[in-house]
Input
Amino acid sequence: MKKTNLKSLSRQELDQLIADIDEKSFRAGQIWSWIYQKNVTSFNRMSNISQSLRTKLDRMAFISSLKLIHKTVSLRSNTEKFLWELEDGFRIESVYIPEGKRRTLCISSQVGCGLQCRFCATGSMGFRRNLETEEITDQVLSTYREMGEKPTNIVVMGMGEPFLNFDNVLKALVIINHSDGLAIGHRKITISTAGIIPQLIRYMKESHPFRLAVSLNATTDAQRTRLMPINKKYPLHQLLQTARTYTQKTKKRITFEYVLFKGINDTQADANRLLKLLKGMPCKVNLIAYNPTANPFKTPDEDTIHHFAETIRPLCAPVTMRLSKGDDIQAACGQLAIANRRKKP
Ligand code: SAH
Output
């Protein structure tokens, strides 16, 4: 019999498993809290569970964890990058960013990415596979274990396009959010997409509570298609129309991420167009200075970035500038890439 990985189960599925083996329903709650509050991976440590049930669980189930390959610490910003190895030898990264009271963890959703955004290092790796639910939640649990402190905020902005691994990512976020477990509030969890319109619509229809960010990065179709080939399939105006509908239907703001590239999308005309495109939409704009990767783009100077921010200020949407954290250890946005030569089994 193939053993069940308890970390692959939703809370309801764990309840069902406990019912199926004729155990009392409160056992599911105990096990859930051992896994997600006390972060244990061995039934032996579940001290309030009888020896006979522990033996029974051991025979039919297991609790996975990620293998830490190494941790790189940024001397400039305290940011830490974790390199994990998965069961099949593939490797992924998560980035831990402490800032005052906030401890943000940036997690990956796929091994590599298929979208090939021209400026992103992960894009150059190509797509390998989707992460399983437990490989997503385990980035949070394993970082928690390593740091001794639970992350306060989660951003799904690491490797991969979360909306192309919709089911596993959303199942993981519901687990991370569950009040009897890690209990990270839904307002503290952000999912970032390059703009996969059908999944954005699905996200809206299913009324998921997590914050939504859309990587806009350009103000015309020609420009955006050059930067993000996915724009050919899901063009700018259609994307913004869907975003507008999302804000109207859900009464929630969207965060638009806009990476600034010198001489490409950082001009006065770009800022004016952005102003026009987002006018009246309840949103936030997050301006990100391009972090250098192995491609020909350049980072604008600080004056240009400030001027851009000033121009779009009339939007009334909060405009934030992301000063890149961890760029000295290749842990900033878009710098995550791994050679990922898969280990021979
Ligand atoms: N696929 C998702 C999540 C991963 S990318 C998405 O596209 O949103 C997370 C953010 O990092 C995106 O806003 C992306 O535009 C940005 N990014 C990618 N490469 C970057 C780079 N080299 N410098 C700065 N930001 C980058």
